[in-house]
Amino acid sequence: MAELDQEFSKAAGRDVVVSFTPHLVPMNRGILSTIYVRAAKDSGASPEDLHTLLLKAYANEPFVHMLPYGEMPQTRHVRGSNFTFIGVTKDRIAGRAIIISALDNLTKGASGQAVQNMNLVLGFPETTGLEQVALFP
Does the predicted model carry a pTM greater than 0.85? Predict the structure, then answer.
């Protein structure tokens, strides 16, 4: 990262701090999202605060799993399931956090959402038919 910062700064003629998150993703299905967030100015909020906020926000969501702070999900964690796994860690740039989420777009995509919504509309438990053991591939 130091070399990237150095060379981009040299090319730009000003200080540049690069955000770069390489992913080695040997997978046959799924979506891995990397999201960078910056705390509001003068808020004093930390990445740990963001993690705590997300834990509270998703506490009662049966298909969202928050990983412990600093742990990152992989698509293999959610393959064939209706789950979304979310991890939060600090960025190397002060005042920023990185959120990584993983989901299986074939199950958590439209088909899983349709079943989940149907369950809610018809008064069934939200999780009916969606908690089975993951399938391959």
Answer: no
Which single residue is written with the structure tokens 């930390």? 46
Beta-strand pair 84-90/96-103: antiparallel
What DSSP letter does each residue of 12-75 carry, written as one string?
HTS-------------SS-EEEEEEEEPPTT----HHHHHHHHHHHTTT-TTEEEPPTT----G
pLDDT tens track for 34-75 = 999 998 888 888 999 999 999 999 999 999 999 999 999 988
Q: Where are the domains of the chain?
A: 26-122
Question: The domain 26-122 belongs to what CATH superfamily?
Answer: Dihydrodipicolinate Reductase; domain 2 (3.30.360.10)
